[in-house]
Amino acid sequence: MRKIFAFVSAAVLALSLAACGTGSSSDPDQPLKVGASPVPHAEILDYIKKNLAPKAGLKLEVVSFNDYVQPNMQLMDGTLDANYFQTRPFLDEFTSSHPDAKFSYVEDVHLEPLGLYSNKVKDAKQLAGGATVALSNDPANLGRGLKLLADNGLITLKGGKTTGITEQDIASNPKNLQFKPLDPAQLPRSLSDVDAAVINGNFAIKAGLSPTKDSLLLEKTAGNPNANGLVVQSENKNDPRVQKLAKLLHDPKVKKFIQDKYDGSVLPTF
């Protein structure tokens, strides 16, 4: 019995050490559970799930979120295997305030140009003095919105900063614009209450707005660091299921799907 116990203990220890050495003991036969914003991220994943994943031997489970907090929190606690909703600057902001989050950004997939929208004026130059402009309340997208306004001459920024921008970085505000930070999902609904709102592309599309047709101002795509991509826990970066999904997200058929479905409002980066 002592010999049997010693053998079993040694086997258990060996398995434990192997697991520690290889990171996550992911099961390739289990679905890869991916959190995503409903539009366009979950739609892109659903296209892959239906049309490409079966042939690649990948099982996908797509979980939709209407906020920018839970997809990272659930990735951190292991509820999700991956998420697809965020930019590199947003991920940097999150990990700087959550040091326990050991995440890796796997692939850029697409860009959703951030835009300024209004139900009150047809041109950004028509915004009156003291006009209220709603912005995303998360730091990465707040800074991105302020940069959009600065790039179009509505405000100026100190020192040429391009990331990590806050209201403290505003050098001049000729129209005395009043800024109203809101949850990103609330921004389209705020258009009836504010003079204009800077809205993330995914929430604009979901609200029936066309970034290319309805926005007063739209981010430039050249040199834009705000592509959206696939993110995983660092220990799972080499999970075969993650690698399969990363490859499928860059498939030419996915590129065509994005171009055909979103008509320039979502731009593939590959």
DSSP summary, beta strand count: 13
Query: Can you tell me the residue ranges where pLDDT is under 50 for at least 5 consecutive residues?
Result: 1-25
Separate helix tally:
10
Report the radius of gyration as a whole number of Å. 22 Å
CATH class of the largest domain: Alpha Beta
N- and C-termini, Cα separation? 61 Å
Q: What is the residue-mean pLDDT, rounded to a whole number?
A: 90
| Cα shape | globular
CATH fold naming of the largest domain: D-Maltodextrin-Binding Protein, domain 2
Task: Summarize the helix and strand pattern as letters.
Answer: HEHHEHEHEEEHEEEEHHEEHHE
Polypeptide structure, described:
This protein has 270 residues and is α/β, with parallel strands linked by helices. The protein is globular and about 60 Å long. Mean pLDDT is 90; it is low at 1-25. The protein has a six-stranded mixed sheet, with helices on both faces. The protein folds into two domains: 27-113 and 225-268, D-Maltodextrin-Binding Protein, domain 2 (3-Layer(aba) Sandwich), CATH 3.40.190.10; 115-218, Periplasmic binding protein-like II (D-Maltodextrin-Binding Protein, domain 2, 3-Layer(aba) Sandwich). α2 (38-51) packs across α10. It contains ten helices and 13 strands.
